[in-house]
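Subject: for your reference before the review

Hello V.,

The reviewers asked for a structural picture of the protein, and I figured it would be easier to keep everything in one thread rather than splitting it across files. Below is the amino acid sequence we used in the manuscript, unchanged from the supplementary table.
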Amino acid sequence: MHTRTFAILAAVAAAAASAELAAPAQPNQHGDAQEGHSFALEACTGCHIVAADQPFKPIYAGDIPPPDFKDIANKSGVTAASLIHYLDTLPTIPKDSHMANADLTPEQTRDVVAYIISLRAKP
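And here is what came back from the structure prediction:
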């Protein structure tokens, strides 16, 4: 009887452990500004001024330079939701916008948006 009870308990414990390992980690729904800063320094500095500590100036060759992240953060009407929508709906080949779809993961988008929002001027 003890052997059967032990086997059942072992099976339940193994199932619980494997379910825990298989469950994906829940991403931060609001994004991580620090992760967004790090990612943006790698991915966005070719065109935008992301931060004062970026390693080089943007090399954008168009007529109108893209806005600095700080300017985006302080633009009237800009919200985290509007930035997420904008980044998620960019076309692969831009027509009216100079920015192409960066093909960011949802987590990367949330992180970059959290970083941009963190740059807002404090009242």
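For the response letter, the relevant points are probably these. Residues 1-27 have pLDDT under 50 and may be disordered. The chain has one domain: 28-118.

Happy to draft the paragraph if you're swamped.

O.
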